[in-house]
UniProtKB/TrEMBL annotation:
Its EC number is 2.4.1.186. It is an enzyme of class 2 (transferase). Its cofactor is Mn(2+). One of its GO terms (biological process) is glycogen biosynthetic process. One of its GO terms (molecular function) is metal ion binding. Self-glucosylating initiator of glycogen synthesis. It catalyzes the formation of a short alpha (1,4)-glucosyl chain covalently attached via a glucose 1-O-tyrosyl linkage to internal tyrosine residues and these chains act as primers for the elongation reaction catalyzed by glycogen synthase. Transmembrane segments: none annotated. Keywords: Cytoplasm, Glycogen biosynthesis, Glycoprotein, Glycosyltransferase, Manganese, Metal-binding, Transferase. This is glycogenin glucosyltransferase. Coiled coil: none annotated.
Length: 333
């Protein structure tokens, strides 16, 4: 793995499900030939099996404590109560073994080499299309510093966040970003959020080939879209706002470089609790309908966005690689 200096791309996985996103992100950075180190912060909720997979992709797997904003009221306004754990991202400022870092959310995908971002200063980020005077915190350049971390934590305890997540907090803390230094405004191509495709389609068509980082924002993530193992294509769920071509690139990396490294023969009880980890490892070598239903009930809530929904939404050829044909058979009776 070729690297330069002590600069790093950093991401975060607070559970096994987001480990899958982190693995695809890491592989995408390797594919575009980054010369920087790759770091993933994880919490104790990440299982040992997935930690081993992360070590094959990232140079540093760093365990951090889970932080929560507990601002459920504002998160409900966003329709994303799951974002309360995103404060854990603030631990990235403690990675002082690196001189400069670029943070990337685990639901981003790097399409072209972006090592030039390390020429930028803290805090450099792209505008959020929903309110362009705020930056989107899914991609940002920063300088690790323990004092900055402590200051952010004090600020969080006294000022809080206007959206319940880290983006509201960071925009309040770095409140001069909109006006002070335009050089810290990254071009949109470094954080193209999915829903923006439909707000200005002519620009998207014109500049799509220039996109360097795509960000799959929203409650539906790339790993939740139906994928056909026979045609090797993904079908975007309605109203997700995700571009089919970018989703296809995510799944191409997942199926070629990430999924093959999961152990499909391991028993469910010994496997991680993450969505794709279980899907890739369901063996269906148990006896009787009850065993299959027991396995099904152990799957996380997100799985209810799954092939058991109407077949016109989830093509049945999505099922073979994920081990669901037998399960669906049992559910019918």
């Amino acid at each position: 793995m070729a690297q330069s200096g002590n600069e790093a791309f950093v991401t975060l996985a607070t559970n096994d499900t987001y480990v899958v996103g982190s693995l695809v992100l890491g592989e995408s950075l390797r594919r575009v030939g980054t010369q920087k180190k790759l770091v993933v912060m994880i919490t104790k909720e990440v299982s040992e099996a997935f930690r081993n997979n992360l070590q094959n992709v990232f140079d540093d797997v760093h365990v951090v404590d889970l932080l929560s904003s507990e601002d459920f009221k504002n998160l409900q306004l966003l329709g994303r109560p799951d974002l309360h754990v995103t404060f854990t991202k603030l631990h990235c400022w403690n990675l002082t073994q690196y001189s400069k870092c670029v943070f990337l959310d685990a639901d981003t995908l790097v399409l072209q080499n972006v090592d030039e971002l390390f020429e930028k200063e803290e805090l450099s980020a792209a505008p959020d299309p929903g309110w362009p005077d705020c930056f989107n915190s899914g991609v940002f350049v920063y300088t690790p510093n323990v004092e900055t971390y402590k200051s952010l934590m004090r600020f969080a305890s006294t000022q809080g966040t206007f959206d319940g997540g880290d983006q509201g907090l960071l925009n309040l803390y770095f409140n001069e970003w909109p006006t002070k230094d335009i050089k810290k405004h990254l071009p949109f191509i470094y954080n193209v959020v999915s829903q923006a495709f439909y707000s200005y389609l002519p620009a998207f068509r014109q500049f799509k080939q220039n996109v360097k980082i795509v960000h799959f924002i929203g409650a539906i993530k790339p790993w939740q879209h139906p994928y056909s193992s026979s045609t090797r294509t993904v079908t975007p769920l309605p109203h997700s706002g995700h571009d089919a071509e970018f989703l296809q690139r995510w799944w191409d990396i997942f199926t070629s470089s990430v999924q093959p490294k999961f152990d499909p023969s391991a028993h469910l009880d010994s496997m991680p609790e993450g969505l794709i980890g279980q899907l890739a490892s369901l063996g269906f070598d148990h006896d009787g309908n009850r065993a299959a239903m027991d396995d099904f009930q152990k799957l996380p809530p997100l799985l209810f966005l799954s092939p058991i929904l109407p077949s016109n939404l989830w093509p049945l050829d999505f099922l073979p690689d994920l081990g669901f044909k037998t399960l669906v058979h049992f559910l019918k009776y």
